[in-house]
Structures are given as C-alpha cells and as structure tokens.
C-alpha cells in the first residue's frame, strides 16, 4: 500500500480520486489528517460526471456519500480543501456534435468541447456554484484552453473568425491564417479572449457563491495551464493553448502549471532543456508580484523520487506549491494523441 504519510509530510497536495483511497473517507482522513495541510479531491471527472450530487451535470452516484463525508471532515479538521473540475475536457458534453471542437480538416474531437461556447461557460459556472456551496477553498479547473494552435475550426469559430481576416467562413484554412503574421496574431488574440471569457464566467460564479455562503476567504479558481518543450514552454503556450497569463492573473489570480503533460519524464537537471524550462518559468515571478498564486502540477507522481525531482525544479524556479495526481486521467491516451497528433 502507498505510504501516503511520506507524501503529505512533504506538503504535496494530492488530488485524490475516491477509488485511489481504498477505504472510507473517515477512515482515511482520521489516519492521515494530522500530516496534511491541504488535500484535493476530484469533483467533476474528464468523462463529464460529477462525484457530488449535481443538479446540472450527470452524476456518478457511487461516490456522492464519499464526497460529502470527505468535504465535511476536511472542513472540520481545518485542512485546506481543493476540488477539481474538468472544463473543456468533458467527455459527456462532447458527445453532442454541436459542442465538439474541430480540426481544420473538420475532424471532431469527441472528448473535448470548443472553448467558444457561452452556453458552456454558463454550464461551467453552475458547476462552480454547486461546488462552492460546499465548504471548500479552491477549485482546480482542468482543460481551460484549446487543444493546440490548430483549434478550433468548428462552424461557430469559422463564422466568427473568418470575417476578422477577410475570408469566407467555409474557405478559412489554418494555412491561410498562419501565412500572414497579422492574421496569425489575430488568431492567437481571438482565442485568448475566448479562454479569458470562459474563466471569467467561472470566477464570477465563485464570487456569487462567496456572497451567498458568506465566505471569509474567497473561493479560489485555479486554472490549469499546460507547459512543455514541444509546445515552446510558456511563450509557445500562449499561441498553442490560448493562454494570456497576465489576463488570467487579473481574472482568476491563480494557475497550476501542468508540467510536461504528455511525457512520463521531466528533463534531467543540467540539460539544456532543463535550463530552458527553468528560464520559461521566470514569468511566474511577475505573476506572483502582481498578486497571483502559482502551483506546479504533475500527473502520475507515485514515488517520493518523482516528487523530489519536481520539488527541486520548483525551488529553482521559485515555485513552492505542488499538486499532483497519483494516476493519469482516464482518457489520457485520447487526449495525448489529440494534443501531439498530426491532423
Ligand atoms: Zn469552435
């Protein structure tokens, strides 16, 4: 059995799935609570199902009791509590062809929805309100951006973007956009606007529920941002995923940098790539200086060595909060293929 105590004592925030715990919430927390300062639990999974009794999203009934018991206990024990929700990575919603995000060649992604959907921002906002009605401290929002630079070419995105670059919607191609520097810049900014708008809905919902609940500390919304060498580190991520760190800072004030999401290994200390990675994380100093909070996140940390490696990297980059999951998302291989695939 995993030696959870070791991880908790290193102040790692582990984002649990109920099935990781292998015992009841009460038994687990009474064993480990004294070692924890903060802890995480999944709220809405990548398959779109919640494990809490949602009135908005489909519910996985098996764990609703677990969820409520867990949250009540972490609140009573004064452990900082994080709950996760997948946002555009929603396999249930993405079954509806109206919402699927699309490649330039019209291939739909059945696991991820287009970030240009105000109805979906409202849906996300409802989830935030539901989660925020529990005594939790933070919501970690996965899948807050586009799959890659080539997204999204769904009908709505074409119709909206094509006129901005003097093209007919059905004749808009990725090549047409990237062959012209101004068009490409417009593409990036237009997509960043969508990402920010989506996060804005979530933040507003958090503020509404703060007022309702009379929270002393505001419910924090933390946006996952992906970062790896293949997509050009933090600079490249602005163009690939549609992030604008400064505006995210103004909107939610908090990010969790998902390091090397598609690779089982981080670059080794002393390598050229390692140095590039550290350098690319310097933007977090400015982010924090402007009042934002920054965490490093990694999927699938299951040994202390893996954690120590992440912590050493964080120390060099000046980031000291770490969140991880022990396992990978259930749809990891589909997501990975979509993110690194050729279209
Ligand atoms: Zn779209």
List the helices and strands and how they pair.
Blueprint: H1 4-9, E1 13-16, H2 18-21, H3 25-32, E2 38-44, H4 64-76, E3 80-86, E4 100-102, E5 108-113, H5 118-132, E6 138-142, H6 155-161, H7 174-178, H8 181-213, E7 220-227, H9 233-241, H10 245-251, E8 254-259, H11 272-280, H12 283-289, E9 293-298, H13 304-317, E10 322-324, H14 332-340
Helix pairs in contact: 5-8, 8-9
The chain binds zinc ion.
Write a concise keyword list for the protein shown above:
alpha/beta, 343 residues, TIM Barrel, binds zinc ion, 43% helix, two-stranded antiparallel sheet, 14 helices
In short:
The protein is an alpha/beta fold. The protein is built from 14 helices and 10 strands. The strands form 2 sheets. It has an 8-stranded parallel β-barrel, surrounded by 6 helices. The chain has a two-stranded antiparallel sheet with strand order 4-5.
Number of strands: 10
Shape: globular
For the biggest β-sheet, the strand order reads: 1-2-3-6-7-8-9-10
CATH class: Alpha Beta
Number of H- or I-type helical stretches: 14
Major sheet description: 8 strands, parallel, barrel
Low-confidence stretches: none
Q: What is the percent of helical residues?
A: 40-55%
- Number of structural domains: 1
Radius of gyration: 20 Å
Residue-averaged pLDDT = 96
Strand content: 15-25%
**Helix and strand element order:** HEHHEHEEEHEHHHEHHEHHEHEH
Remind me, CATH topology? Answer: TIM Barrel
What separation lies between the terminal Cα atoms? 42 Å
What structural class do helix, strand and pairing data support?
Answer: alpha/beta
Bound molecules: zinc ion
Named at the architecture level, the CATH assignment is: Alpha-Beta Barrel
Write out the CATH superfamily name.
Glycosidases
């Amino acid at each position: 059995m995993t030696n959870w105590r070791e991880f908790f004592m290193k102040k790692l925030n582990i984002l649990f799935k109920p099935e990781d715990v292998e015992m009841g919430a009460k038994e687990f927390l009474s064993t480990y609570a004294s070692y924890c300062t903060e802890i995480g639990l999944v709220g809405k999974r990548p398959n779109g199902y919640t494990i809490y009794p949602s009135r908005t999203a489909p519910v996985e009934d098996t764990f609703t009791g677990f969820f409520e018991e867990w949250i009540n206990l972490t609140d009573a024990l004064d452990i900082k509590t994080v709950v996760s929700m997948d946002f555009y990575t929603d396999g249930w919603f993405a079954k509806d062809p109206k919402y699927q995000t699309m490649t330039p060649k019209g291939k739909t992604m059945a696991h991820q929805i287009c970030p240009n959907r105000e109805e979906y921002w409202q849906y996300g906002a409802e989830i935030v309100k539901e989660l925020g009605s529990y005594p939790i401290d933070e919501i970690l929002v996965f899948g807050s951006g586009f799959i890659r630079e080539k997204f999204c070419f769904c009908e709505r995105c074409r119709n909206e973007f094509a006129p901005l670059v003097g093209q007919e919607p059905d004749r808009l191609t990725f090549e047409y956009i990237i062959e012209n520097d101004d068009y490409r810049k417009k593409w990036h900014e237009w997509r960043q606007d969508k990402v920010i708008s989506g996060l804005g809905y979530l933040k507003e919902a958090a503020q509404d529920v703060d007022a309702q609940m009379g929270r002393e500390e505001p419910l924090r919304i933390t946006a996952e941002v992906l970062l790896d060498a293949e997509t050009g580190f933090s600079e490249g991520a602005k163009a690939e995923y549609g992030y604008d760190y400064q505006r995210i800072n103004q909107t939610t004030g908090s990010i969790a940098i998902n390091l090397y999401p598609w690779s089982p290994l981080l670059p080794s200390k002393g390598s050229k790539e390692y140095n590039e990675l550290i350098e690319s994380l310097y933007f977090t100093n400015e982010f924090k200086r402007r009042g934002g909070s920054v965490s490093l996140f990694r999927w699938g940390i299951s040994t202390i060595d893996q954690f120590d490696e992440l912590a050493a990297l964080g120390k060099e980059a000046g980031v000291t909060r770490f969140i991880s999951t022990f396992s990978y998302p259930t749809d990891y291989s589909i997501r990975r293929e979509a993110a690194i695939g050729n279209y």
